[in-house]
Amino acid sequence: MKRIKARTVEAFVAHLREREKSNATVEKYQRDVRCFLAFAGELISRQGVLDYKAMLGERYAVSGANSMIAAVNAYLRFCGRHDWCVKQFRLQRQIYRSEEKELTREEYERLVRAARERGDRRLALILQTICGTGIRVSELRHVTVEAAERGEAFVRCKGKNRHVFLVAKLRERLLRYARERGIVSGVIFVTRGGNPVSRHWVWREMKALCLQAGVLPNKVFPHNLRHLFARCFYEREKDIAKLADILGHSSINTTRIYIIATGAEHKRKLEHLHLII
Known about the structure:
Elements: E1 3-5, H1 9-18, H2 23-40, E2 43-45, H3 46-59, H4 62-78, H5 105-117, H6 121-133, H7 145-150, E3 152-157, E4 160-165, H8 168-181, H9 199-207, H10 210-213, H11 222-237, H12 240-247, H13 252-258, H14 263-271
Antiparallel strand pairs: 1-2, 3-4
Helix pairs in contact: 1-2, 2-4, 3-4, 5-6, 6-8, 6-11, 12-13
């Protein structure tokens, strides 16, 4: 059985950074590859990869297992073994979203009100900035005083560049907030030390609003605000290609996931067919 000596995870991480992968992607791939090597050992083989895939299929949901397989495949290509890459598990395309996980517009508004009632204007404005533009929480650092003055932010993420427009009402609030905080240039959402707020901080502070806002914690995380923006845009414009450009997606198939209707909506649409006579 042919085996190869595993290349270091550090070298793989450096390779990912050279390819301008996002910090989140690098961290996840690093974590997943370490799990793979802990399972397979320093000398890896094709059979070891297959055994690892089988283990993932037994222990994880399909989506989670597939994301880990993607990391392992990237690592195998880095090691020069493209022929050892394995196929991901087949997953039937979901036709509607679970209502238990979907953040509604009314719930979003309650979260913003709760942040204001706590006196946390920064968090309230962060929620509105993500939901009002569809940006990723990691892209908040591109929301600068200069961007607010121009009315658009220039975002670079995952090797792609795009312009994110800031509507007039958001621009006004961003600039007023910056003036009150004495921020004359650069990133608007910063810590006391002047560093951009982290995704972990935003996630933690959002969770702290759940009880006061009366929203289930499993619905409250930054990416769900991006999903809400996508659904609201699509309901109004019905243009999935344009939405993909706004969100910075390379594939429309990714954008489809964002605009899947809830089970209740899907049921209503079936009722409106009036095919039972």
